[in-house]
Write a structure and sequence with these properties.
This protein has 164 residues and is an alpha+beta fold. The chain has one domain (3-161): Roll (Pnp Oxidase, Chain A). The chain has helices at residues 10-18, 61-67, 102-107, 148-161, and strands at residues 3-5, 22-27, 33-37, 42-46, 49-54, 71-77, 85-96, 119-131. Strands 1, 2, 3, 4, 5, 6, 7 and 8 form an eight-stranded antiparallel sheet that branches.
Length: 164
Amino acid sequence: MGKQYSELLEKDVKFASRQKVFFLASASGEEVNLAPKGEDCLLFLDSRTLLLLDYPGSSNRTGRDLAAGGFLTLMFCSFDDDARVLRIFCSGEVVGKDDPEFTSIVKSFSAGEPEIVRQVFRLSVLAVENSCGLSVPVMRFEKKREGGVRHWAEKKILTAKSGG
C-alpha cells in the first residue's frame, strides 16, 4: 500500500535525482498528456517547490494545461533492484521568455541555456506518494541518446531564426 504526504522528503529528492528518466502527466479538461523526460531539466528548490525546464517540442500540451489551471503529476520509477515508484502531484505556473525572472531561473540549472528553453514550469507540490514499484521490471541504463533533446531544441531554434 502506498504512503501519501504533503511535501517532499530528502529521501524522495535523492531517489528522484538518481533516475535517468521520469514521466510527466498533465490535464486541464482536454486529453490527458503524458511524456517521458530526462536530461538536466528538473530542479528541487525546497520540499514544496520544483522548477522544470520545457524545451521546444512537437506540442505544448503541458504549458497549455498549466496555463488553464490544470495539474501535473511527475512519476519516477526505479528500474534497478530498489523497487519503488514516486509520484509528485503539483499545480503550477508557466514562466515564459517575456517574464523578467526567466533568464535567471534558467541559469540556475547547471546546463541552463535561455536561448533553447521554451518556458519554465514553477511547480507547487500538492501531495507526494510512494509505492512499492514491484510491477516495474529491472532494466539497466545503457546510454543517453546522441544529441538528446537539447540538441534537437538548438536545431529547431536555429531553423526558426533562419526562416526555415
